Amino acid sequence: MKKNLLIVLMAVIVYSVKAQSYLGYFSDNYSGTQGLLYNPANVADSPYKIDINLISGSVFGSNDYYGFKFTDVLKKDYDFEASAKKFPSISNNGYINVDTQGLSVMFNIAPKHSLGLFTRGRAIVNATDINGTTFSRIDSGFLGNNDFTINEGDYSITGNSWAEVGLTYGTILLDKSEHFLKAGITAKYLRGIANAYSSGKNVNITYNDNIVPALSTVTASGEITYGGVSDFEKTAKDFDFDSKSNGFAADLGLVYEWRPEKVIVNSLSKYKLKLGLSVTDLGSLKFKNDTLRKYSFNNRTVSAIAVDNANDYRDVLELFDPNPEIVKSVKAVLPTALHVNIDWNIYQRFFLNLNSDFGLTAKDGLNKNFNPTMVILTPRYESKWIGIYLPVNYSEYRDFQAGFGFRAGPLFLGSGSIITNLITDESKGADIYAGLRVPIYGAKRTPKVNDRDGDTVLDKDDICPDIAGPFENRGCPYKDTDKDGIIDKEDLCPTVAGEKENRGCPWEDSDKDGILDKDDKCSDVPGPKENKGCPWPDSDKDGVADKEDKCPDVKGTVKNNGCPEVTDEVVKKLNDYAKTILFDTSKATFQQQTYTVLQAMVAILKEYPSSKFSIEGHTDSDGKDTLNQKLSEDRAAAVKNYLIENGVDASRLSSVGYGETKPIANNKTKAGKAQNRRVEVKLIK
């Protein structure tokens, strides 16, 4: 089997790279057209009248599989597989980013407006979740090894290359006092060159060795999706730059500068602190000849010799699935990234820059390039003709690295890893960048002078040269006659102190209830503060406000807290009904004809929802006293419970039994006994 047979795409983990180009250099205020690639807002208010990039490029390499000594790699006969240290894991990752910039230019078109135009060629490869043992196993071939199994699982590999032309516009949004803000946008047209991508799901490869090589087999399971342009292996001169292999993208950026000092101490660098925020590569790219095939292996077994003798990656896949599913190709998604940049002018020409890059494109899915998260801390010295950088950086695919770079007039050269690579024998990356340009500087701005109060109005034009004031008032502060913090030209009541929210006038109290109109929900009608200036409602119109009315929906009296009062006539009516309640003999259960009486009592009680009543039970003298007492209590309780079950609030009712102790007639006659067996209702006052 040829060495690169199943690892044509996996080999990117040998040289995978960081997300950021031009480490250390791009943060320089004199980085020119390279700076606008990172944040398009950098094109505005630059130190250049015009900057022309002739040719520049960067190549970055790092990985989390191989560790090596950088000086050994430069030797002609160096063999990665034999000499490099390996750090295999179940999830090795990698990233490639080759960035070349052709003829490009940026210039100012007005004091607050600038343009940039650049040409660029890029190649990016991502390898995600590669099982490290897969690489070493397949690279050594199948035949001659003992039985082994490669559990690759899920993986993703994407490689895209394209050319782009970008037009950048930048403008100054704010330049006032200590605060400066600029913004920029880049529109890019993309022309595809080549692409290839592959992803696997539950991929498992088993090699069964046999003493007879012809009987050795390879069994594969899982799914592999493989796609790309059909002419990927053509030479560069044969590539078809068809107009249909294209796309569009955009970069957006903002830069804020804090400029507390009026004296310019660092040539054209005017800030003490600079904050940058940008999003790059918002877009996608469509390759005309992109073809996607999906292979399902289903534990298919083939001869190991056939695998070893296969010509290319597709031939191997078709040994296990000769009829792959051919589906619609997918767009190449660009590596959209968020960049956050903080630049501190420590002293004169010495700066400290902190930059963070965050990939916004998801790592899963087909044909998606993404940027690993990266943090870069760069001390630097910069002047008009000289720049020196010491970037210390960390990315999620490798350890810390330190580098060195410089700018000297039209030439710049550097590396984000050179220092680390010279002192370690386990380096997992190397990078270099260089460029040649034609910088034409703008006129040097002299410090502002003859402005004693520092209000940007020169003393010769300042009516109040010792007191800071706005330019539109000829350098004098605006008056504030009533001292309410609102200048007279904006104060509707300039002689009476008022509130800013009321344009300098005091708030009124139209209904004179002590609550200002701005806080009064009923500014035309007096009301208490507790009800936001509105009178309390009286729903039943009985003269008792709802908040104090115990019966807000039923008209009552003030004396009875808004509830209707129970009269003697009502109590008499209740007792008239109560006298007709009939119980079963010697029991506390009702006779059938009694239920209509009880319902009538329920209706009356509901008319007086705040009144409380006592239900009293009485018996005649027949039987034992203890039994009569118990029976009277049970019968009173039965009436109470019925009333509660039919909607009368339990808190309003109580029950008591008096047995035969309170007769109202002679117990020696039948008629008297009938009168003594009774239920009475008493109003509790």
Entry summary:
Residues 512-549 have a biased composition (Basic and acidic residues). The protein is mainly beta.
Task: Describe this protein's structure.
It is found in: Cell outer membrane. Residues 501-549 are annotated as: Disordered. The chain has helices spanning 33-38, 70-73, 80-83, 132-139, 304-309, 313-320, 418-423, 568-578, 595-606, 625-645, 670-676; strands spanning 48-62, 66-67, 85-86, 92-101, 104-110, 113-130, 148-176, 179-208, 217-229, 246-258, 273-286, 290-296, 300-303, 325-327, 332-333, 337-347, 350-359, 374-382, 386-389, 392-395, 401-402, 404-408, 411-415, 429-441, 612-618, 653-657, 678-684. The chain is mainly beta and 685 residues long. The chain has 2 domains: 17-440, Porin (Beta Barrel); 568-684, OmpA-like domain (60s Ribosomal Protein L30, Chain: A, 2-Layer Sandwich), CATH 3.30.1330. The strands form 3 sheets. It has a 22-stranded antiparallel β-sheet that branches. It has a 3-stranded mixed β-sheet with strand order 26-25-27. Strands 2-3 form a two-stranded antiparallel ribbon. Helix 8 (568-578) runs antiparallel to helix 9 (595-606). The radius of gyration is 46 Å and the shape is flat. Mean pLDDT is 83; it is low at 1-19, 231-239 and 263-267.
